[in-house]
Amino acid sequence: MRLVIMGPPGAGKGTQATRLASRLGIPHLSSGELLRDAVAAGSEPGTLVGEIMARGELVPDDIVKRIVAERATAADASDGFILDGFPRNIEQAEALDRAFATRGVELDAVLRIDVDESVLVDRVTERADRARTAGEPVRSDDTPEVLRERIRAYRRETAPLLDLYTARDLLETVDGSRSIDEVTAQLVDAVTARNRAR
Ligand code: AMP
What we know:
binds adenosine monophosphate; alpha/beta; 9 helices; 5-stranded parallel sheet; globular
């Protein structure tokens, strides 16, 4: 299946996409992870991309589209994948449509994790605290100030995609305020129903 997972920063997209990918046996493609890896490996104009990410703004479309396309055309993604963090604006959604059309495949569903914005700052602060306690690296964009910019970018650029995918009857919304297991269960149910209807 070809799936997209959407939701504001801190909604739990990464956690849920990882779980769903292992249940479905398809790779989890996170544009944020791919960008962080590219910056760490020095394979991108690191300072430019790294600085944009550190500010919580969107990286230029051309760079993201190229990095995601490279990963999405790898052999292990030929039967499907779950895209996390991409598309993030209309231009990227159109690029995804074109890529699918070229390959004669379709998007099966867009999974939206719906979370009230008021809890996002707390969640991201907790994520950073947990990583710190576990001695793991803390994302430099997991600070309240940068998170506010990421939420603004989501509202301005990404949220309009919800209307687009609703109009195409691809959107499945789950309640992201529930426990991690409950959110996974809702997502699995939504995907199973879509798969049955295929
Ligand atoms: P994420 O891991 O999805 O929260 O993404 C972290 C950061 O990577 C974002 O705040 C953006 O700076 C950048 N990023 C990730 N995906 C995209 C995308 N599709 N388009 C533009 N920038 C992105």
